[in-house]
Amino acid sequence: MTAHNSLASLSGRTGRAVILAALAAALFWVPFACASERVTIFAAASMTDALEAVTAMISKDTGVVVRTSFASSSTLAKQIEQGSPADIYLSADEAWMDYLAKRRLLANETRRAWLTNRLVVVVPSRPGLTQAADHVTPVAGDFGTGRIALGDPAHVPAGRYGKAALEHLGLWADMAQRLARADNVRSALVLVERGEASSGIVYATDARISRGVTIVGWFPEKSHAPIIYPGAIVRGRARPEVAKVYGLLQSPRARAIFARYGFGLR
User: Alpha-carbon distance 165 to 159, whole Å?
Assistant: First the structure.
């Protein structure tokens, strides 16, 4: 091989090495460059369908990747307390929002509440069964004779509301031993859909998205504390894109989507 060919070969190898190194560096930095354009929302399970529709709209409009994690409000609050990387927290009650606020884990100035809900009794759908009007109060016979699916009152907001409502109607003493305690309200809904519980207490929005259950009664709103959904940005996570997404969650377009899924608006 001539000196000229040797230099050309070396130059070619060096060029390829430089290109490969540049590509590797680019790939290494891509996740970090994009990380600031990702927003993670921890939200109550009952918000699943509505929030996915809202975040799809936000991502399409802004280009920000919005990731969601759904579970009971209590589970998510404990995960945030343990350091899970949530940017925004949306709870199904004020109590778990207060839990994080007391531990100084929220940007308290961002706390807002703009959604409400109703509590209903559902049973597995069957031919000839019609949905009760929203003024029909549940009676003991609506619950059947089997298990009653309910979010665990010890930590699930829907369960706490349900227990309070049953106590208000004088039904708790008879129903308490029949409870099928679920990890969250969506799990309670599934138990009724599958016929593993003869009835269940869920939010009206949950019943609305299910073809497998029928509402047979609506708890009076005065039978329990108001069902309010607060939100806040997690402390230390208020990047510009997080603030943008959080604002858009409360925008007229987002509110219209939430209303379409059955949520009340404040």
Answer: 10
